[in-house]
Request: fold
Amino acid sequence: NAGVTQTPKFQVLKTGQSMTLQCAQDMNHNSMYWYRQDPGMGLRLIYYSASEGTTDKGEVPNGYNVSRLNKREFSLRLESAAPSQTSVYFCASRQYGTGRSEQFFGPGTRLTVL
Amino acid sequence: AQRVTQPEKLLSVFKGAPVELKCNYSYSGSPELFWYVQYSRQRLQLLLRHISRESIKGFTADLNKGETSFHLKKPFAQEEDSAMYYCALSGNTGNQFYFGTGTSLTVIP
Reply:
């Protein structure tokens, strides 16, 4: 099992460009999450999807959109990138409901917006 | 409201010394608590969960409901323990999962 995978690993954008970060998991988990990690601020939840077909805002959703394409895939889109979105982005998944469980993380995408 | 508090952003200890990373939480009901570790430029990985009551890599953590704490401890720190550590909480209603801001541990040789 690959677990949680993310593409791309690195990306440099210019202000105003758009891009989509991809995330996929092969553990048949129902819930998926997108976080950003910034120095001194820890992990902040951007959006999450409790189950296929549902998405909800987290702590810092502004400037982002998400799509839960199917049970495996959860993408994060930046429509018009800004320098403040320079960060490391992590996707995570877990199986919620059958006893609470931990989240499993992807390797991260390091995004720089110039 | 801050659910998980890690009061130390940075912590340095000498190799062989005991180490304690603090975590306090605020949540009514019965949450599940976790410690995650992130080595340099790697993904977060689960270190401990309170319901398992196990020791991983020499680390232990006890849930103290009276003090609402879940401190991570190791009696003898090793250089390979240098990493970022996150305390996390899973709520018992809804799909809630909260992380603290993390503590960066440096073990000095």
Notes: The mean pLDDT of chain A is 93.
